[in-house]
Every structure is written in C-alpha cells, then in structure tokens.
C-alpha cells in the first residue's frame, strides 16, 4: 500500500491511503481483471489498482484535463504501464473497450446514468464498487443496488482521524467519512 505522500498531489482531491487499503481488500483482486475506473481524479486509486493487477488492465475515465496531467505524473512516478487513460466521462460509447470484470466509481456528476451503463456492460459475476462522500450519492447507490440484478450488496462507512502536531500537543484531525458500496452482478444461468 502506497503512502499519500508518495503521490504527486498538487492541491487536487484524492482518496486517502486508509480508504484505498479498505477498497482494495474488499475488491479481492486476482491480478488479471479488466477494470473500469470512473472519475479517476488524481490517480491514487488508478495506481493502486494497476499495481495490484500485474496481468490485468485499468481503463481510467477522467474528463478534467488538469486531473489527467496529475494522473499521468502519478503513473510515471510508479512506472505503471497497464493503464489506458480515457479523457472523457461516462456515460459514453464503450464499444472500443473490453467488458469489465470490475468497475470502481470514484465520482461522477451523472451517477444514475453511469450506474445504469456500467451495470449493463459489467460481466456476469463482476463486481461494482462505488465511493460516496455526499448524501445524494448515498441515496443513488442504495436505490441502484436495491433495484438491480446485483447480489452480495455491502456498504461500509470509514471515518479516519489522524494525529496532527499543534505546538507541544497533538490534536485529532478528522477526515471526511467515505462510504464504500460493493455488489456482484448476478450470474445468468444458461441451462
């Protein structure tokens, strides 16, 4: 697991190392999956996914050009070669890309539409994971998983508090809580 300070993060929002650690544990990667990462932001999750997939590939969707520059620097910094950067947001035409075994949604301004699209293109038995930091996103994820063909639905909240030096004292510096939702697309029986 990489430390936050190992990344190039020039004032851009990013997923903290404790959240990345729990997310990766919940994903239970085998090392050869095809992953779509939606809303790649600064690339912290992108890099961790790619390093965990020596025989796999990450398709990282990010529309913000400034954030794409940050992601490229982080990929260079860690010598990551198994990421395809896609400079656009979902929903979009995905016909040029292989169907994913796993989808990770870091953020999206069109979350309902994105969930519908990735839920449809995800391989049967594939895992959909989403991170939420707003009440609105929480409600959208809950609605989606309750009304879809996903099983093994799980949701957790993580609240990290770090020590911060303040003179001769140490104070508690609370980070924003993050919710991680996961679900597995039902396998279709063909018999």
From TrEMBL:
Protein keywords: Cobalamin biosynthesis, Methyltransferase, S-adenosyl-L-methionine, Transferase
SUPFAM superfamilies: S-adenosyl-L-methionine-dependent methyltransferases
Keyword S-adenosyl-L-methionine appears in the UniProt entry: yes
InterPro entries: Cbl_synth_MTase_CbiT, Cobalamin_biosynth_MTase, rRNA_Ade_Mease_Trfase_CS, SAM-dependent_MTases_sf
Coiled coil region boundaries: none
Molecular function GO labels: protein methyltransferase activity; rRNA (adenine-N6,N6-)-dimethyltransferase activity
GO biological process per UniProt: cobalamin biosynthetic process
Keyword S-adenosyl-L-methionine: yes
Pathway field: Cofactor biosynthesis; adenosylcobalamin biosynthesis
Protein's name according to its UniProt entry: Precorrin-6Y C5,15-methyltransferase (Decarboxylating) subunit CbiT
Organism taxonomic ancestry: Bacteria, Bacillati, Bacillota, Clostridia, Thermoanaerobacterales
